[in-house]
C-alpha cells in the first residue's frame, strides 16, 4: 500500500489483521501517531515500513515492534521519536516529547558539573604528577647513593 497518496491517520483497524506478516505504508501522506493496536495485535508482523509519511509521536512498543529497525520508521517522519529511532530513545522506553533531552537542567547546573569535572580531572593529573615527581626524586637519590657507595 505504498505510494498511494493515502492521507489522514493510520487506521487502528489494521490491528485486526493479526496474520499479516508484512505491511508497507511508506511514501503516503499519513499523519498522526502510530496506533497502539498495531504494536499490540500484529504478532505475526515481520516487516513494516512507515517511512516517508508525516507521522508524529512516540513509536509504540510491542512484541513485534521491538524487533523492527529504524529503517521501518526513518525518513519523512520528523515528529516521530522513540526506539528504535536514535531520537529520544533509551533502552527501556521512549521519553515523552515535552521532556528536554538534558532532563531540564539549567545552564548553571551544566556549568557547576563542568567545574566539578574539571576539578576532579585536574586533581587526578596533579596527584599523578606529584607521585611521578616523588618517585623520580626517590629513584635518583637511591641510585646516586648506590653509585657513591661503590
TrEMBL record:
The chain crosses the membrane at residues 112-140. InterPro entries: Leu-rich_rpt, LRR_dom_sf. It comes from the Eukaryota. It is found in: Cell membrane; Endomembrane system; Membrane. It is a single-pass membrane protein; Single-pass type I membrane protein. One of its GO terms (cellular component) is plasma membrane. SUPFAM superfamilies: L domain-like (SSF52058). Keywords: Cell membrane, Glycoprotein, Leucine-rich repeat, Membrane, Receptor, Repeat, Transmembrane, Transmembrane helix. Belongs to the RLP family. This is Uncharacterized protein. It comes from Digitaria exilis.
